[in-house]
Design brief:
TIM Barrel, 8-stranded parallel beta sheet, 45% helix, globular
Amino acid sequence: MIRDYGLCLWTFGEEISFEEKCKAAKEIGVDGVEIQGDISQDPEEVLKILEKYELKLLSVTPDNVDISSDDESIRSEAVQYFLDLLEWAAKLGAKRICLHGEVGKVRGCGDATKDWDLLVKSSSKVMSKAEKLKIEVVFEVLNRYENHQIVTAQEALKLVNEVNSKHLYVLLDAYHMNIDEACPIQAIKDVGEKLGVYHVADSNRQAIGNGHSDIKCQMDALNEIAFEGPIIMEMTAEGSDPFTPMKGGNYLEVVKGYYKESLRELKEWESALAKV
């Protein structure tokens, strides 16, 4: 099965420009990229650079905002950001954006039912806009050390069912699943046709083969559910701060190496499957 392979531009860090990131992605050999949702950027300029390097816009990752905050002003501002992001994405001709809780918020307000209701309410507002613009939204399943909500595939499916929008899908990430899923392979199968994007990195968020995750079997599971969405690599160099890709030294070359090695591995698996 032929799919688009991409990478997340945020993993190159803020030390280089958007164009330099796209140039690096082109040199690595991916089909497209997941860009950051910086709505201050001119959509025409973004498109011009993507076209220059012949890269598809596979997805848009959002700024870090809190859509389930019990502080109404914070929550409203977060929802408005996503509404604006959808408008911005529409100008780019983007097929999808990503939605998730605030990274780093590992505790709620103390009332889990209230937290959940606020998440559903905010997500529903975002989806109402997404449906009008015909843009797919993929809710990313994080892990317990990054957010207190939606850390398993089953929780994501519960949200999808309650929001009840045909444009809402799930984003599963091999790195996050390594932490909170009892079985990442089963999680992929459970999400099935509602899987919109698959992020891949090994258990340490490095290149495939550098950790202990069984990425090959996860790829087999994607084939079993006939997943046609993009496979987007999201890897960072080794370092102490998990919330920044900039690890010092030659981190950028390290990450580029991870991507080249992993893309080669992924395509070898795909080629072998095609011969079966």
